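Appendix B, record 7
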Amino acid sequence: MTEQLLHILAGLGLFFVGIKMLSKSLRAMAGGSLRKLARKMSANQWLAGFWGGVAGFATQSGRTTALIMASLVQGRIVEVRSSIPIVIWANFGCTLIVFAVVFPINFFVLFLLGVAGLAVAFEKPRNFLNVVTATFGLALMLYGLSMISAAASEFTEYSWFENSLDLMNKSFVLAFFIGLAVTVLAQSHMAIILITLAMTKSGLLDFEHAVMIIYGTHVGSSVITYLTGAHFKGRALQVVWAQILYNLVAVAIFLGLFFFEALCHSRLLHDLAMSLSDEINVQAALIAILMNLVTPLALMLTRKSFTGACERASPPSETENLSEPEYLQEELVESPVAGLMLCEKEQLRLLKRLPSYLGMLRIGEESPLVTPESYHQAYEVIARNILQFQSSLISHALSPDDTEWLINLQNRQELLNTIEASCFELCEELGKSSVNENVDVLGQQIIEALDTMILTAIAAIENNDDAECDMLDTMTSERGESMEQIRKRYLASAERVSASTRNQVLHITNVFERASWSLGRFSKLIRQAPQVK
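Structure tokens (predicted):
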């Protein structure tokens, strides 16, 4: 039994490493071509459902498809609303495996793991390294799941499993919970369904108890989906919740029908299955197929409510809300001039956020609802989108003036990155508790000075005003000498100032100087390009 547990642990390790590798590679691939392909696949809800069925059949797991789609959402490649039809129809696709067990994917996973692993190891082909790394991550996920399932299936050889069979035929409730528990143990509800169908064919289970086990496996699938997908946050976790709620809705519908039949002394489902096949295991398989056909159809008809339930289960994080671009749209790449104008507006929007960093450091102000870390993480996401957008504009035939404008915006973005990093660094440094009153005073002076310079830069862009640029030039040119004098004064009083205080003074003055120099250079770039009025 120890060996099986170690195999399950190893499988879990490979599974989570695969998810992390897949997610990281997908974020790196989140450029125009992949975004367009993924969005084309999910543009129409019924087309997305078709691809979901294909994905479910290929992975033999609605849960795996949900985790892959969660990675795509986390990588900002597809939207949650577009991914939900793929997730719910993947369950129908994977259920078709009960009629296609002669086509296992184990050899395909091993082939994929070997080929992709060699490509990653030798970094060939270099132009598609992100693609092969994502493929390798996917192969690791599937191989990890197969390891878990293979190791867990050996538990069926133990006597406690055989004894559970006798108990199952005595109670519908017990059969349901045993299906749930064994699914959690095996980490694969399809594996348990196939075992159940095999036992039904052998006469170990009757139709009703086999169906109750199948219902229990769906709840068990929700449990393991939550356990393996809980590391996602915000919108990505909504996709995981879509899979969890899918199983619960399916069980609620068919359990309700089961008990309704019991109250009415009817056998509607069984009679329907018997009309299609005389074999009891095929009848149970047909119920599994019907369950995963009716549920997606019902959820597609109530898609808005279902999506809303997923959103309530995992509201977007503050960072996700802040990291949504307001002006950038991929369609505008085809109109370079409009793209350049809106790219500039997106940069201005980021610049306008920077005073919020500094406002958090003012003594006497209330604690902000948004942390500096949330602002910083959101900034990095939008800055990456801006750079990708600018890179996509390069491929178009731009006029000489537009080319200069694009270069200007790229240079501005680099400086804006430095200014933002400086503001965040000051938040981290000045946010620490200080035992020196002079450092607190110096920190407040730096905050006010930097805030004034940033507001002047904002006014220069918004008003297209050279006078504001002149004022910013004057402010930034004087700061170097001021910081040098402050450093000399603190270093001269070494016997009265602790080493940690001296280091803090040197750090914050250096960061401020860097921000001041970047703002001075930023001012010069503002003068050189057309402005959005």
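Remarks on this record: The radius of gyration is 30 Å. The chain has 22 helices and no strands.
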